[in-house]
From TrEMBL:
Family: Belongs to the shaker potassium channel beta subunit family.
Descriptive protein name: Aryl-alcohol dehydrogenase-like predicted oxidoreductase
Gene Ontology MF term list: oxidoreductase activity
Domain NADP-dependent oxidoreductase: 15-316
CDD domains referenced in this protein's UniProt entry, alphabetically: Aldo_ket_red_shaker-like
Residue ranges the record marks as coiled coil: none
Native source species: Oryzihumus leptocrescens
GO cellular component annotations of the record: cytosol
Cross-referenced InterPro entries: K_chnl_volt-dep_bsu_KCNAB-rel, NAD(P)_OxRdtase_dom_sf, NADP_OxRdtase_dom
Record bears the keyword Lipid biosynthesis: no
Keyword NADP belongs to the record: yes
Keyword annotations from UniProtKB, A to Z: NADP, Oxidoreductase
Length: 338
């Protein structure tokens, strides 16, 4: 495993991070989830990403139990706040002072730790003043409940304003967690340049586009049994947008000889590709089996030459999304009050 600084901070994280969205307490049983976490540790992965909303709080609890007995100082635990997570009512989501303080306490209890290394705003809250949000995060840092602050799926303008307030409050705003892959490059135009300027590093999710870039989904064929496309607990909904595009799936199949020529599996090629971006501090992988962790972890330290990077672009040309406006930001007002 290799390690990178998270933005311009002194925090070192494994360049392959393990995430448990759509898997723990959902797609796989707990014994299998624990086995995947243990395999991640065996592969040298030290960075673990989760969120209070994953499996309606249950994913955090599974990760906490899976890491029980691991020396706390030897891992970096990252979680998030914003979406509804086990609560009801008008304050059960968002980035208000009330929701942040109540949520961090719940996350710490489920994770079985006194602090998280990175606490992240899971989305931007358009119904709460940003000053209130950042002041609440400052409280969390000063209380020792989080060491660093980050965000997920914020656009460049939001990053700049949040970072400005963080500097005024003297708290370390060091990370952004966007979707990023060979076919989803919406951060390259605005978010990455702003992040480089601000000293913010990317911890990217879905580097394999929900498994599409592994080549397992073949045009005209049913999805493989046990794949995310067959998961009725949320996985199928996420990958469905890619599976409807036969042109994209055909182009992905044409990446296979490029991967073989480089001595890589398709999954390793996809993870290694995002790590070529020097603003990416880590790529988050998920897994339903320990052997998937091992395969993906082998992308650490891989360097792709310029000819291979150009060949990938040529194959995927026409199927790459680059529009910065596609940064995912659901309006909070759209959430139902439960």
């Amino acid at each position: 495993m290799e390690f990178r600084n998270l933005g311009n901070s002194g925090l070192r994280i494994s360049e392959i991070a393990y995430g448990n969205w759509l898997t723990h307490a959902s797609q796989v049983e707990e014994d299998q989830a624990v086995a995947c976490v243990r395999q991640a540790l065996e592969e040298g992965i030290t960075t673990f990403d989760t969120a209070d909303t994953y499996a309606d709080t249950a994913a955090e609890a599974v990760l906490g139990r899976a890491l029980a007995g691991v020396r706390r100082e030897e891992v970096e635990i990252c979680t998030k706040v914003y979406f509804p997570a086990g609560g009801r009512g008008p304050n059960a989501h968002g980035l208000s002072r009330k929701h942040i303080h109540e949520s961090v306490n719940g996350s710490l209890a489920r994770l079985g730790t006194d602090y998280v290394d990175l606490y992240q705003a899971h989305r931007y809250d358009d119904m709460t003043p940003l000053e209130e949000t950042m002041e609440a995060f400052a409280d969390v840092v000063r209380q020792g409940k989080a060491l660093y602050i980050g965000v997920s799926e914020w656009n460049a303008e939001q990053l700049r304003e949040g970072h400005r307030l963080a500097r005024e409050l003297r708290i370390p705003f060091v990370s952004s967690q966007p979707q990023y892959s060979m076919i989803w490059r919406v951060i390259e135009g605005d978010v990455v340049p702003a992040s480089r300027e601000l000293g913010i590093g990317q911890i990217v999710w879905s580097p394999l586009a929900q498994g599409v870039l592994t080549g397992k989904y073949v045009p005209g064929q049913a999805p493989p049994a046990g794949s995310r496309a067959t998961d009725d607990k949320g996985g199928a909904d996420m990958v469905g947008r890619w599976l409807a595009d036969d042109v994209l799936l055909e182009r992905v199949q044409r990446l296979r000889p490029l991967a073989e020529q480089a001595g890589l599996s398709m999954a390793q090629l996809g993870v290694a590709w995002v790590l070529q971006n020097d603003n990416v501090s880590a790529a988050i992988i998920g897994a339903s089996r320990p052997e998937q962790v091992t395969e993906n972890a082998r992308a650490a330290g891989v360097r792709l030459d310029a000819d291979l990077m150009a060949a990938i672009d040529e194959v995927l040309d026409g199927s790459i999304e680059r529009d910065p406006g596609m940064t995912r930001m659901p309006r909070r007002a759209e959430f139902p009050i439960r």
